[in-house]
Amino acid sequence: MKNNIKNKLNINKNIKFRITLCTILLVGILGIMATYAYAQISKIDRFSDDYKDNLIRFHVLANSDSDEDQNLKLKVRDEVISYLQPKLKDSKSIQESEKIILNEEDKLMDICKETIKENGYDYDVSINLGYSKFPTKQYSSVVLPAGEYKALKIVIGKGQGRNWWCVMFPPLCFVDEQNNVIDKETDEKLKSVLTKDEYELIVEKDNKKVNDLQIKFKIVEVFQKILDLKQDDCQI
């Protein structure tokens, strides 16, 4: 009887020891991840204000997630890109690109309305060049961290469906996504509007490394959301 009790006590001690050890290891791993993520957040924040001010994103929101509304969203996207592509192709700066987009805003509105009407819908549409929040997103060999970027935003109808986005300047909407590459001209334009550190932060030519870069930015995005939640709690 005493031996049985002693064995049970030993088993319980072993279980407690293993739980404690696993907890310490888990806390250690989480601590290392948090330290790494914080270092990456700091690095991204150090460059983000500059490189974000040199990019214009393109953001299209569908009326809903129905197949019909999603297909309409892509048709509107294609018409807008087809119209703006040749006009933005030779733009040398974000300021020049902004001016082109703003000058073409009425024409872009007509294109959106005509495309919607031609496809049998009467949705309202709005166009705005301002700041929008974006998640981490890969465009061929370029990965952009989550955050607020200046964007041409088109909202179709209620704007409650899945959205679509790309980079309008430099023109990453037009890269060869199937082969996961950006052409030399676009690559050179990126280098011309970004510093060396900014370029190296978001561009990776090796396919495996670009996937690793996306995962890294996703991890940073999660930790950034946690930090934002803590800051919101502190303000309450």
What are the defining features of this structure?
four-stranded mixed sheet; alpha+beta; 6 strands; 61% helix; 236 residues; disordered C terminus; two-stranded antiparallel sheet; 7 helices
Describe this structure in words.
- Strand 3 and strand 4 (142-144) form a beta hairpin.
- It contains 7 helices and 6 strands.
- It is α+β, with helices and mostly antiparallel strands.
- The chain is globular.
- 61% of the residues lie in helices and 17% in strands.
- It has a 4-stranded mixed sheet with strand order 2-5-1-6.
- The chain has one domain.
Describe the secondary structure blueprint for this structure.
Blueprint: H1 2-52, E1 56-61, H2 67-88, H3 94-103, H4 105-118, E2 125-134, E3 137-139, E4 142-144, E5 147-156, E6 163-169, H5 184-193, H6 196-202, H7 207-235
Parallel strand pairs: 1-5
Antiparallel strand pairs: 1-6, 2-5, 3-4
Helix pairs in contact: 1-7, 2-4
